[in-house]
From TrEMBL:
Residues 327-391 form the Barstar (barnase inhibitor) domain. SUPFAM superfamilies: Barstar-related (SSF52038). It comes from Microbispora bryophytorum subsp. camponoti. It holds the Pfam family Barstar. Coiled coil: none annotated. The lineage of its organism: Bacteria, Bacillati, Actinomycetota, Actinomycetes, Streptosporangiales. InterPro entries: Barstar, Barstar-like_sf. This is Barstar family protein. Belongs to the barstar family.
Length: 428
């Protein structure tokens, strides 16, 4: 089967001596997709996940707390007078700080207004309330000490080194519940070194004409490459992974794998690469779709998420749903987290390596049809007690968003979604 609808003539013949496993496609500079290169490996596509930032201490200065923040302070019997109090009094999953700019002045440079808030807002997560003291800002206000982490999204904007031009900050939680207002803050806005760009190398690369043109250019500024990565299996079939490579080509040398190919180095790479452990998963799919169920069961939550993503990318296209009224069996022995549920329901409906959602919205879409099963259908959930013990109320940091906390999704929530979609579930 030609890769990606005929972008290149026959990838399977290229892989006889050295498997060329990754296809780069330019989907951005023209009206049609164009193959850029195929290569044996991509150094920088699989990397160890970034560790969470260390907790920091912040002060909400001149604060009039409300809602859960007010309740947290009211629950503490005595105010604290300085930084020595380090015992948390309450925990909040998220504290959003939305600056209120002077309406009589132009918005700060780069500010984009939303409803509510603007792009100058910042988010604290995993917040422990440590205490409060009377504020010097005004009688009746307090300075609130908290410990938490600043949510940093490099692909959107880097946190400001100086506070934004703001009259005050509105505070609210994840569900937009009011937490009060404060005059200013300390500890949040300061210089943070931007992470060093990790170079990427296309190893054992056969460039197509668009990349050859880049290599001929003398100016580095004109060697910018933007392409989507497609995974190529042993038959030459390529599937889109949605990993986008965007960087400048800095060097090209004869490949260490084959002198007839190139090793091409770029000065940066992927905003969100695969985790390093996912290489094993894509090695498995290279050889062919998994033939046994539960091969994902020994993985941690992060790799279970990667497994469901690989199942999505390799999902057979243009296959009709099975007719309504069918019965499917879910093996629930390993549903110890929500990621395990997505892996298990994918295999229940679509067999080993099958896909039926990898986050809540995607699962809801799958229930509506077009992903293997038409409603109504019946699901026999074996060993449902495992999910009952592990999918419990509270807050959760899901594998796809480790830098934030979300309300946990419970077994009852899942059963409610099935019932709403007209699916009969029989827990066993």
């Amino acid at each position: 089967m030609p890769a990606s609808g005929g972008l290149v003539e026959d990838l399977s013949t290229w892989a006889q001596d050295l498997p060329l496993r990754w296809l780069l496609v330019d989907e951005y500079t023209g009206d049609t997709d164009v193959a850029v290169a195929v290569c044996a490996d991509v150094d920088g596509l699989f990397v160890a996940p970034e560790p969470l930032p260390e907790p920091e201490r912040y002060t909400l200065v001149g604060c009039a707390p409300a809602g859960p923040l007010r309740e947290a302070l009211d629950a503490a019997p005595a105010p604290h007078d300085g930084p020595g109090d380090t015992e948390p009094r309450a925990w909040l999953p998220t504290v959003m700080l939305d600056p209120v700019h002077d309406p009589q002045r132009p918005a700060p440079h780069g500010c984009q207004r939303y409803d509510p808030g603007c792009s100058c807002s910042e988010e604290l997560f995993d917040v422990e309330v440590l205490g409060h003291r009377p504020s010097a800002a005004r009688d009746g206000l307090v300075d609130v000490e908290v410990r938490g982490r600043l949510r940093i999204l490099p692909e959107m904007h880097w946190p400001l080194a100086r506070p934004p031009d703001a009259q005050r900050f509105l505070l609210h939680g994840r569900e937009n519940e009011p937490l009060g207002v404060c005059r200013s803050t300390t500890g949040i806005f300061h210089h943070r070194p931007y992470p060093t760009e990790q170079p990427v190398t296309l190893v054992g690369c056969r460039p197509e004409e668009p990349l050859l043109k880049l290599l001929r250019r003398r100016s580095f500024r004109k060697r910018h490459l933007q392409a989507t990565v497609h995974a190529v299996d042993a038959t030459g079939r390529a599937v889109r992974t949605y990993k986008v490579l965007s960087a400048v080509v800095t060097a090209a040398t004869p490949s260490r794998l084959d002198p007839g190919l190139l090793d091409i180095t770029l000065d940066g790479g992927f905003d969100e690469p695969f985790s390093d452990g996912a290489r094993e998963i894509y090695d498995l799919w290279y050889a062919g779709r998994p033939s046994r169920r539960n091969l994902w069961a020994g993985y941690d939550r992060g790799l279970r998420h990667e497994w469901a993503g690989a199942a999505l990318f390799h999902r057979p296209q243009d296959q009709p749903d099975r007719p309504p009224g069918r019965t499917y069996h879910l093996d629930g022995r390993f549903v110890t987290d929500i990621e395990g549920f997505y892996c298990a329901i994918g295999e229940a409906v679509n067999g080993p390596g099958g896909y039926f959602g990898w986050n809540l919205d995607a699962f809801d879409d799958c229930l509506r049809g077009g992903w293997g099963a038409r409603r109504p259908f019946r699901l026999v959930w074996h060993h449902a007690e495992v999910a009952r013990r592990n999918l419990v109320p509270g807050y959760d940091r899901p594998a796809y968003d480790l830098r934030s906390w979300h309300p946990a999704f419970t077994l009852d929530d899942l059963l409610g979604m099935f019932a709403e979609a007209g699916v009969t579930v029989e827990p066993r």
